[in-house]
């Protein structure tokens, strides 16, 4: 068998392996409950009114990238065919030191492409970070090692979260802190941190934002679907970063009000002080840390 035949077989084998890996990866996304589809570029299904802004930017960028890729691949193949070596081609073609029109072309065109990408990215980011509208509900999300506190500002109640205990058993999500949001209402998140940099991320929102100590970040969303969604910290923040999880429940207004009343009945009234750091607040996660370190 010739070396060229071996090379072709190798390329086909590598391509098949790549296809299998891609299929397995997409299957894994579905397995953990992340709903994707070709219509939104295989992003998680957005559940806010702002999600289409991210989807449109994502899909538009991929279309532009594929168009450039097809053009480049086509030019490469055309050059391989049109300028392949033929019988009797014993002399080198004319060697040119430069080609001004061509150099201008491949300098200006990429600059225009980058400029267009920057424009649409900045436009989307400006819309997503716009907090000029009056929110229906304001929630102060406080990141801490390694959980979350939620201050429901308008209702004057709070919920203090505990670090997730991941022991491989089912039902761990039921013990996570749960953030309640009313469907169809504009919610403003005011993000603060007690210690280090965290990142507030709900994949179904198609948005995330850093939670920095000494800095207040804000963004608004309008949930348009009810359901329970997963949230997590997206910034490496220490030894138990992977256990900094929470739930998000988007519910009707009646259920939201009922949960606020439930927090009041539990005595969780008032707002947790953002000025308190982990040394001044009783560390309710310490027993979990001790258990984990004891097992190790």
UniProtKB/TrEMBL annotation:
Annotated TM spans: 57-83, 104-121
Keywords, in A-Z order: Copper, Electron transport, Membrane, Metal-binding, Respiratory chain, Translocase, Transmembrane, Transmembrane helix, Transport
The EC number(s) this enzyme carries: 7.1.1.9
Keyword Membrane recorded: yes
Any one Gene Ontology cellular component term annotated for this protein: membrane
Principal localisation: membrane
The organism's place on the tree of life at top rank: Bacteria
Gene3D superfamilies to which the protein is assigned, alphabetical: 1.10.287.90, Cupredoxins - blue copper proteins
Recorded catalytic activity of this chain's protein: 4 Fe(II)-[cytochrome c] + O2 + 8 H(+)(in) = 4 Fe(III)-[cytochrome c] + 2 H2O + 4 H(+)(out)
GO terms for biological process, alphabetical: ATP synthesis coupled electron transport
Cellular localisation: Membrane
Domain Cytochrome oxidase subunit II copper A binding: 134-262
Topological type in the membrane: Multi-pass membrane protein
Top enzyme category: translocase
Gene Ontology MF terms: copper ion binding; cytochrome-c oxidase activity; oxidoreductase activity
A Pfam family it matches: COX2
Protein family according to the UniProt entry: Belongs to the cytochrome c oxidase subunit 2 family.
Function: Subunits I and II form the functional core of the enzyme complex. Electrons originating in cytochrome c are transferred via heme a and Cu(A) to the binuclear center formed by heme a3 and Cu(B).
Descriptive protein name: cytochrome-c oxidase
Protein species of origin: Janibacter hoylei PVAS-1
Name of the gene encoding the protein in the UniProt record: coxB
């Amino acid at each position: 068998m010739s070396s060229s035949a071996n090379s072709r077989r190798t390329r086909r084998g590598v391509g098949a392996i790549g296809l299998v890996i891609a299929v397995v990866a997409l299957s894994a996304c579905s397995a953990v409950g992340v709903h994707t589809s070709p219509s939104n570029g295989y992003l998680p299904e957005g559940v806010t009114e702002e999600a289409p802004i991210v989807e449109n930017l994502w899909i538009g960028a991929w279309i532009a990238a594929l168009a450039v890729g097809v053009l480049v691949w086509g030019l490469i193949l055309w050059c391989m065919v049109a300028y392949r070596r033929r019988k009797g081609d014993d002399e080198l073609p004319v060697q040119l030191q430069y080609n001004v029109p061509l150099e201008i072309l491949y300098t200006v065109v990429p600059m225009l492409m980058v400029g267009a990408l920057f424009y649409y990215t900045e436009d989307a980011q400006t819309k997503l970070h716009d907090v000029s509208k009056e929110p229906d509900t304001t929630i102060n999300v406080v990141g801490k090692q390694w959980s979350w506190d939620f201050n429901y500002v308008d209702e004057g109640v709070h919920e203090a979260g505990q670090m997730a205990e991941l022991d491989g058993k089912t039902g761990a999500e039921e013990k996570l802190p749960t953030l309640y949001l009313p469907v169809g209402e504009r919610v403003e998140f005011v993000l603060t941190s007690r210690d280090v940099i965290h990142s507030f991320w709900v994949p179904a929102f198609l948005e995330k934002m850093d939670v920095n100590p000494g800095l207040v970040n804000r963004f608004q969303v309008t949930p348009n679907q009810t359901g329970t969604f997963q949230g997590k910290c997206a910034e490496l923040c220490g030894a138990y970063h992977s256990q900094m999880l929470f739930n998000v429940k988007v519910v009707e207004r009646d259920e939201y009000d009922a949960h606020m009343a439930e927090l009041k009945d539990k005595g969780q009234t008032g707002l947790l002080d953002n000025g308190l750091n982990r040394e001044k607040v009783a560390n309710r996660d310490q027993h979990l840390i001790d258990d984990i370190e004891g097992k190790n």
